[in-house]
Each structure stands twice: as structure tokens, then as C-alpha cells.
């Protein structure tokens, strides 16, 4: 008898109503900028009180699905990467994942974005990537500026895929990407290694400019392999001391 009740939805009523409102948004084809029905209408549809509806709407607003404004109906909003950014930043700050885990995720995502960018990039995006490479070369001695430029380089690649989901994935990673970039540069601090990092980006840029999807993916993979290997070596030396 106990097994029959294991799948009961024990969440608060407002959370279950929020799911129903989300389903209604999808079923009625509402788009960003469209208004939801009034609170009174939602109460009638769901058969619940205004307090429950307001809780459900607040829940959806907190998740970044709708916008609430005084004196007007709730409104559907576009995807908001800030919601994920706050989650990721909190996870890194509270040691729920490491920089190595960030690199693993970036490696998988950005190898794909590089290949797709090579197929879909515009001439303007090719020029922007080249400009960012040149600026990165000038900023080698400035870790903060370099990290920002490095992030913008990878964001530009995501934008060049012509797939908004890649942009939505990369944008929230801004702060933890910059953190991983800075940590990676500290693990590759020699002038030779610093120059290699810049050259890695130039190789990626050239492959994308040439429309070489396979070459762009391979260059991105090699870039992350070098960063991951350097970070692993640095962590080992920090723990056990330099290898004689």
C-alpha cells in the first residue's frame, strides 16, 4: 500500500499551480512580452484563492519565467541567463564544484560551438574574433583584462553559432569562466605558456574564419586539453611539491 503513495506530489499548492500556469503559457502559445490572464481569471481557472495564485506567480517570477509589475498583469519574459549565473556563481563560491569541473563542461560545450561557428559565422564576427585576439595579446600582463577579453572571445563564438541556446549557456558562465581563465593562466605563468594561450585563440579564430568546422573543434579541444593538463600539474605540485 505504501508504494502506491510514493509518487504523490507533496509540493506546496502554489508550486503545483505554478506548473499549471506554465503549461497554460505553453498551450496558449504566449510569447515574451505577452500578458498572462488576470489574477481573477487565473483563480477561476485553477479553482484556488488569490493568495495561492500570487504565490504561484511569485514562484514563476523567481524562476525567471514571468515579470510582475504593480498595477498590471504578469508578463511572459525572454529567457534570462542571470538566473543561471547566480546559481553557478553560488555553486563555485560554496565549493559545490571545482574549476576542473567548469573546464569539463566548457570543453564539451565549446568544442561544439567552435565547429558550428565555423559553419554559421558572419564576416563581422570573424573580424571581432580577430580583434579580440589582438587585444588579448596586448593584455597578457593584465590578468583581469585578459580574462574579460577571453570570455568575450568565447561568447562571440557562441553568438556565431546562430543558436541562441549556446549563448544562453555561455552567458551565465561569465564569472566562473573568468575565474577559471585566471586560474588557468596562473597555472601557465611562463612567457612561453602565456604566448601559447594567445596562439591557441588565434588558431581557433583562423579555423572559424576559414569555415573549417573540424579544425575549429580540434583547436578548441587542444586549447582545453592544455589548460586542463596545466591545472592538474599545478594542483599536484601544490599538494606534493614540485617534481624533482
Automatic annotation (TrEMBL):
Residues 224-244 are annotated as: Disordered. Keywords: DNA-binding, Transcription, Transcription regulation. CDD domains: WHTH_GntR. Pfam families: FCD, GntR. Residues 11-79 form the HTH gntR-type domain. InterPro entries: GntR_C, TF_FadR/GntR_C, Tscrpt_reg_HTH_GntR, WH-like_DNA-bd_sf, WH_DNA-bd_sf. GO terms for molecular function: DNA binding; DNA-binding transcription factor activity. Gene3D superfamilies: GntR ligand-binding domain-like, Winged helix-like DNA-binding domain superfamily/Winged helix DNA-binding domain. This is L-lactate utilization operon repressor. It comes from Shimia thalassica. The lineage of its organism: Bacteria, Pseudomonadati, Pseudomonadota, Alphaproteobacteria, Rhodobacterales.
Amino acid at each position: 500500500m505504501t508504494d502506491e503513495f510514493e509518487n504523490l506530489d507533496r509540493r506546496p499548492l502554489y508550486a503545483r499551480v505554478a506548473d499549471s500556469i506554465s503549461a497554460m503559457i505553453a498551450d496558449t502559445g504566449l510569447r515574451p512580452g505577452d500578458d498572462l490572464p488576470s489574477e481573477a481569471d487565473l483563480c477561476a481557472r485553477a479553482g484556488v484563492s488569490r493568495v495561492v495564485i500570487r504565490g504561484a506567480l511569485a514562484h514563476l517570477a523567481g524562476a525567471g519565467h514571468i515579470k510582475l509589475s504593480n498595477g498590471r498583469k504578469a508578463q511572459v519574459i525572454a529567457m534570462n541567463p542571470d538566473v543561471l549565473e547566480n546559481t553557478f556563481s553560488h555553486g563555485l563560491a560554496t565549493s559545490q564544484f571545482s574549476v576542473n569541473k567548469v573546464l569539463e563542461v566548457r570543453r564539451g560545450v565549446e568544442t561544439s560551438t567552435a565547429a558550428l561557428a565555423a559553419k554559421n559565422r558572419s564576416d563581422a564576427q570573424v573580424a571581432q574574433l580577430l580583434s579580440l585576439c589582438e587585444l588579448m595579446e596586448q593584455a597578457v600582463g593584465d590578468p583581469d583584462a585578459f580574462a574579460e577579453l577571453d570570455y568575450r572571445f568565447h561568447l562571440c563564438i557562441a553568438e556565431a553559432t546562430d543558436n541562441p541556446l549556446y549563448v544562453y549557456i555561455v552567458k551565465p558562465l561569465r564569472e566562473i569562466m573568468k575565474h577559471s581563465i585566471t586560474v588557468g593562466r596562473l597555472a601557465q605563468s611562463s612567457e612561453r605558456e602565456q604566448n601559447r594561450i594567445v596562439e591557441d585563440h588565434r588558431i581557433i579564430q583562423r579555423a572559424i574564419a576559414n569555415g573549417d568546422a573540424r579544425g575549429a573543434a580540434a583547436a578548441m579541444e587542444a586549447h582545453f586539453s592544455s589548460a586542463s593538463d596545466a591545472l592538474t600539474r599545478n594542483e599536484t605540485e601544490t599538494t606534493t611539491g614540485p617534481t624533482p
